[in-house]
Amino acid sequence: MTDAVFTGTSITESGGGQSAVAGVGAGQLGRTSISSRAMRRVLSAITADEMGVAAGDVSIDLADDNGLLAVTASSPISVPALGSARQRRMETDGTGASASSLIAPGGFVAPRSIADRATATQGIIRSRALALTGSTVGTVVVRLTGARIDTEARPR
């Protein structure tokens, strides 16, 4: 009896559509398949975590990108209310340097602008998708569909 060895991950549409295979090496046996629905759920959770919104607010489209997985994530983004403590932490200290940074989920230092956060999210989607599913993601498009203003209790 031969043991199966993980060679990669294929993303398949239910109904047997095209599949994208990542990391398949010669001489290795076996394959793990992840349905497109499961992959969308994982990518929705990753995107929602980075954007500070609920996973249900995120929509994911998948496509083939010359053998890699192309992801389009559409999501609102959470932004601090003007004058909030979180917004003040994201401002500069007058010298052009960040006064203090917002630590986002996953422990990285979040960029200050909405555009920078969306750009950083592209790379995070790639790396976390690879780490969680074994799928190599090529193109990532992040579409911001709105802004959710974080309201927090202000000190009196």
Provide a quick synopsis of the model.
It contains three helices and six strands; from the N terminus they run βββαββααβ. It has helices spanning 36-51, 85-90, 114-133; strands at residues 9-12, 19-22, 32-35, 59-65, 68-80, 137-150. Helix 1 (36-51) runs antiparallel to helix 3 (114-133).
SSE layout:
Layout: E1 9-12, E2 19-22, E3 32-35, H1 36-51, E4 59-65, E5 68-80, H2 85-90, H3 114-133, E6 137-150
Parallel strand pairs: 1-3, 5-6
Antiparallel strand pairs: 1-2, 4-5
Describe the protein in words.
This protein has one domain (about 35-150). The chain contains three helices and six strands. It has helices spanning about 35-50, 85-90, 115-135; strands spanning about 10, 20, 30-35, 60-65, 70-80, 135-150. The strands form two sheets. The protein has a three-stranded mixed beta sheet. The protein has a three-stranded mixed beta sheet with strand order 4-5-6. The longest helix is centred in the last third of the chain and has 20 residues, at about 115-135. It is elongated. Mean pLDDT is about 75; it is low at about 1-10, about 15-20 and about 90-100.
Task: Pick out its properties.
3-stranded mixed beta sheet, alpha/beta, 29% strand, 156 residues
How big is the Rg?
19 Å
Average pLDDT taken over every residue: 75
Distance between the termini: 71 Å
The tally of beta strands, per DSSP, is: 6
Helix content: 25-40%
Class of secondary structure makeup: alpha/beta
| Beta-strand content bin | 25-35%
Quickly count the helices. Answer: 3
- Sketch the major β-sheet: 3 strands, mixed
Order of helices and strands: EEEHEEHHE
Shape: elongated
Structurally, the number of domains stands at 1
Poorly predicted sequence stretches spanning 5 or more consecutive residues: 1-9, 14-22, 92-100
